[in-house]
Amino acid sequence: MELLSPAGSFEKLKYAVYYGADAVYTAGEQFGLRAKSINLSQKELKQAVEFCHQNNVKLYIAVNIFAHNTDIAILPKYLKFLQEISVDAIIISDPAIFSLAQNYAPLIPIHISTQANVTSWKSAEFWFKLGAKRIILARELSINEVKKIKTEIPEIELEMFVHGAMCMSYSGRCLLSSFLNSRDANRGNCSQPCRWQYNLIEESRPGEYFPIEEDSKGTYILNSKDLCLFDKLLEIIHTGINSIKIEGRMKSLYYVANVTRTYKTAITDLKNRKKPSYNLKKELDKVSHRVYTEGFFENFDSSFSQHYESSSYIRNYQFIGKILQQKGKTIHIEVKAKFSLNDELEIIFPEIEKDIKFKVRNIRKEDDESLNFTKPNTIVKIDLEQKIPLHGIIRKKLI
Ligand code: SF4
Predict the structure, then answer these.
(1) Which of 192, 226, 305 for a ligand 1 pocket mutation test, highest count of atoms within 8 Å of Cβ?
(2) Within a domain: residue 351?
(3) The pTM is what?
(4) How far does the chain reach from its first CA to its final CA, in angstroms?
(5) Which structural domain, as residue segments, surrounds residue 393?
(6) Which atom of ligand 1 has the smallest separation from the CA of 169?
(7) Element (H or E) spanning 270, and its range?
(8) What is the pLDDT of residues 223-267, one digit of tens each?
């Protein structure tokens, strides 16, 4: 079973690979559903394919917008380009792009996006007969429905989401953002109004807000919890799913790395007939997330999946920076968030058991001038006694 991780930039893609992804999905600057993510230029896409293939990792490219007439004219050139650079699959939801891909990139396998809402074996069969290699299942399916699809169409590859944010609507069938903010979710531009705080107003009393559900914090009637199927991995493996997917092309490098290594370690443990440890699952609480749910996996109950009290993220740890290199006792850090002398920090690595904690005893600029604290987007040096593995990421526990 493949572990598939998100990458909103080339840098995040590299960390997904370093931290254990078997495959990575991303998008170019057009036609993906995360317009606010940095995404990859054509030059970077080419480099990303080379990087992934050198590391025996597959790269899938999302071309999963619902295309308008203006897109149709420019899609063939882009699809031809994706074939030229040998991406491993194109993720598609729109039948128009599906047929264009078959014409202009016939050698590249097509994966049917979750945006296409495949919720039955008959729908899977429809796409299979048209030539799709894989279905990325709708998140709204129970495991029994997934098993039925696998039994009826064993030839088609199945991919399912196991972790990350969910929509309150069927993926892609949502016009909230277009309606309230003129930003089209189906063209990668969702402003997430399902996370906003809502109240009731009576027409003749402007400015008087009536709570819909009494709670001092307000109410967030449309706000979905985040999916987490960590505890269901064994059952998913037994179902014969080909790929499990982590959501989050907009998330940080730290999020992608830590969630990827957590699932990777759990899959390896299960394959070795070992139960993943409680501490391993705890890593999923150390990334920014909303309250977790197992969503539709068993029997769906909306009260378990909506989070009415708040739309804020739970943040127990802060992403401080990544380690660029170690020279002797000195590590060079690309700083993402402030830290200070005497802070207690942790460094995580692709292998969880190598993680370390340490206290900051000194901070220096690149020219060796001493500092008491750092600023984001700078490079600093600190001393560390031990030799550490490559690709370390620094985090700080928030009190
Ligand atoms: S508004 Fe919310 S439910 Fe609708 S597409 Fe955006 S994230 Fe999904």
Answers:
(1) 192
(2) yes
(3) 0.93
(4) 38
(5) 317-397
(6) 3
(7) helix 253-271
(8) 888 999 999 999 999 999 999 999 999 999 999 999 999 999 999
